[in-house]
Amino acid sequence: MTIQRISSGGEFEKKIGYCRAVVAGGFVHVAGTVGQGDTVAEQCRTALGTISDALEKAGSSLEKTVRVTYYLPDRADFEPCWPILSDAFGDHPPAATMVECRLIDDRFKIEIEVTALAG
């Protein structure tokens, strides 16, 4: 089985020892991704942009996403993301889970992890 590793060049990839995405077994597994900005909506948009870029490098797309997990320190912050997520996945919504938990840094308000079909 061929494994393709995709790096986004983020500071934590080298520091922690992981890559943005791994293509294996017919799927693209994208690591938990945080975004930039002051609000949860801004962070959600930029995280989806980073994820979309990784999927594109793997020959996939948000449309081919089959599973998504959202991690938020405050579940009340999830609702402002709904229109952004609905727009991003459109007519191809994946199976989804939302988990309330602490993230690696208190400035982050959302982390998104996806699995998509490869190719």
From TrEMBL:
One Pfam family in the UniProt entry: Ribonuc_L-PSP
Origin: domain of life: Bacteria
PANTHER family, sorted: BLR7761 PROTEIN, YJGH FAMILY PROTEIN
Listed name of the protein: Enamine deaminase RidA, house cleaning of reactive enamine intermediates, YjgF/YER057c/UK114 family
